[in-house]
Amino acid sequence: MQEKLYFYYTNDLHSNFDNWPQVAGFLKGAKEKRLAENQACWLIDIGDHVDRVHPIAEGFMGKANVQLMNDVGYDLVTIGNNEGITMDHDDLHHLYDEADFQVVCANLHSLTDAEPAWLQTTVHIQSNNGVKVGVIGLTAPFNAFYELLNWHISAPIHTLEKHISHLKEAADIIILMSHLGLSEDQEIARRFDDIDVIIGGHTHHLLRTGENVNNTIITAAGKHCAYAGEVVLTWDHMRRKLVDKKAAVYDMTELAKDLNTEQTLHDLTKKAEALLGQSVIQLKKPIHVKWFQHTDIMQKLTDTLREWTEADVAMLNAGILLDQIPAGQVTYREIHRICPHPINPCVVRLDGNELTEVVRASVSKELTELKLKGFGFRGEVLGKMICAGMEVETCFREDGSEYVRAIQYHGEPLDPNRTYKVATADTFTFGRLLPEIAKSEVKHYFVPEFLRDLLAYTLRHKWEDY
């Protein structure tokens, strides 16, 4: 006898609810159909469902996302870095208190006295005919952030080595829920023969029919739930082995919406607006924002960044503010709309030569006009770099390109033998946007505050509204 086991999954929603009513309808319908056929079926999420870019996630600090997953009927969830490092310890510790599903993450550990009641390292599920499935979850080890929030993420490979043999003893099939990224998933598949399926995410890769590596099928469904995924495993009871593994993804964008979910999102949006309705400032006239020009608001925000972090100098890109700040009462909801990024302040240490290279690169057209996607940035373009604590003199070439003529700190040129504390957005500590910052051996992240918290502080305490 052969038996099919069905797994439907989502990953990396990032609180982008545009397709969520369609996703909810698809998942509920799939589960209802399979259960009516007496087939084994589970709904799974691979993390980064929560992203504080959306007012629902911000206002409810992620708990409304959990409610939405409860409504759909999820069975198993792991956490992504957006659940893990964008809220303070207590908020994550209680994020899933009301979850109707199991949260599985083997490498997340609290550095306080108690682990969350919802946290499980592994779980075992079973089909109607007794096929035993062992499930383990892993999340990406951003310990530079996690440990500031009193969490620790153990190394994924070490964690698997610790748990995989125990899983194998009690399970016929092993599934890894991985918020690690495609390259990590491929390496795990090469090293661990006993893992049958890796359902992945984090790097927003779309594997339409899966990818077979060694003995493992790897799958993922992109980002923002434009797609939802399906894994179908066929177990042969006579041979006591898996005889087939298939993966697919389904386009959600054109499907019918689940009307109850759409109404729930409408209601949650209204409630979130009320939760974020506290006044920050009353303005007589709007504050103008320009991405490629110097503005008073960006200068004051960059000044605040330098003072807040006690740095020598600060640098912040003007594209961080998405829109002008309108006249009238400005609430936290408006601040969130204008500065939605889950970006933290950060201080790095650079010598004078390194800082000079950063300033030179920051005025280039390639950087200021870069349409960045990722690294926490949720805007359109990076924009002009605004500086505080140092004077930067620039000139323009005949072709219109800008270049740095002189940089002074307290009236003197930058000293190549001196180390400067440079405050900036944590965005620049990742990738190769500004390599000197990314390669700095000393990085001090400020958590859980976001740049929008500094914006609210700036408006409250520094803005003079004439």
UniProtKB/TrEMBL annotation:
Keyword hit for Hydrolase: yes
* Protein keywords: Hydrolase, Nucleotide-binding, Signal
Name its GO BP terms in alphabetical order: nucleotide catabolic process
Molecular function terms, GO-annotated: hydrolase activity; nucleotide binding
**Pfam families the record matches:** 5_nucleotid_C (PF02872), Metallophos (PF00149)
Q: Decide whether keyword Nucleotide-binding is in the record.
A: yes
Tell me which residues make up the 5'-Nucleotidase C-terminal domain.
Answer: 289-427
Q: What positions does the domain Calcineurin-like phosphoesterase occupy?
A: 8-205
InterPro entries for the chain: 5'-Nucleotdase_C (IPR008334), 5'-Nucleotdase_C_sf (IPR036907), 5_nucleotidase/apyrase (IPR006179), Calcineurin-like_PHP (IPR004843), Metallo-depent_PP-like (IPR029052), Pesterase_YunD (IPR011240)
User: Do you know which Gene3D superfamilies this protein is assigned to?
Assistant: 3.60.21.10, 5'-Nucleotidase, C-terminal domain
The superkingdom listed in its UniProt entry is: Bacteria
Identify its protein family.
Belongs to the 5'-nucleotidase family.
* Name under which the protein is recorded: 2',3'-cyclic-nucleotide 2'-phosphodiesterase/5'-or 3'-nucleotidase, 5'-nucleotidase family
Organism field: Lentibacillus halodurans
Q: According to the entry, what is the taxonomic lineage of the organism?
A: Bacteria, Bacillati, Bacillota, Bacilli, Bacillales
